[in-house]
């Protein structure tokens, strides 16, 4: 099937809430299993899969900042949270028979490999799923920016931003029934409309390096597989 695929190597960006329970917090093993099943289905097509996951289910830095916490400390705590989520997702995927490696931008050799670009690419070439934890390793950068950075470093062909909405709309479709969905957007359009799908740093990085972003609803059945086969799903942000 690999010859039929539009993309051969992808980076999947997941929010921490994707692992959360119904209230969005903690790590729900059932949600981890659900994500693992979807990733396994994509991996089975022959596509090379890398993953970056956030930590919103474990740590909300914005709330801590509002209470006076130091920004660097809050960001470091969030980065540690992404490693916890990465390990939970690794465990769920491995239970489905898929080989996984976790690489962390913050060195913690007893639980994860340090991030080494060439080693990550080699893992992908050998058919392993690679999960990148620890963000960029630096405060003041979101996991969206980390996802774009890693995608460029491993020479992925697209960043797939997994959400619970089937693309990008001009306003929140859950609140506004008349919201209009975009099938395609340019980077400049996405930046000028100040869309909240990704932060402006991540969008700008994609624009400057021509890295397309595909926004789709991961929870719709086979949505990810359809995207890999080139079917028109979600919203594609590109040059």
Task: Write a structural description.
The protein is α/β, with parallel strands linked by helices and 239 residues long. It has a single domain (2-238), classed as Carbamate kinase, CATH 3.40.1160. The chain is 36% helix and 19% strand. It has eight helices and eleven strands. It has helices at residues 29-43, 61-66, 71-94, 117-125, 143-153, 187-192, 200-209, 223-228; strands at residues 9-14, 48-53, 100-104, 113-114, 129-133, 158-163, 168-169, 181-182, 184-186, 213-217, 235-238. The strands form two sheets. It has a nine-stranded mixed β-sheet, sandwiched between helices. Strand 1, helix 1 (29-43) and strand 2 form a beta-alpha-beta unit. Helix 1 (29-43) crosses helix 3 (71-94) and helix 5 packs parallel to helix 7 (200-209). The longest helix is centred in the middle third of the chain and has 24 residues, at 71-94. The chain is globular. The two termini are 28 Å apart. The model has no long low-confidence stretch (mean pLDDT 91).
Draw up the topology in text.
Blueprint: E1 9-14, H1 29-43, E2 48-53, H2 61-66, H3 71-94, E3 100-104, E4 113-114, H4 117-125, E5 129-133, H5 143-153, E6 158-163, E7 168-169, E8 181-182, E9 184-186, H6 187-192, H7 200-209, E10 213-217, H8 223-228, E11 235-238
Parallel strand pairs: 1-2, 1-6, 2-5, 3-4, 3-5, 6-10, 9-11
Antiparallel strand pairs: 7-8, 10-11
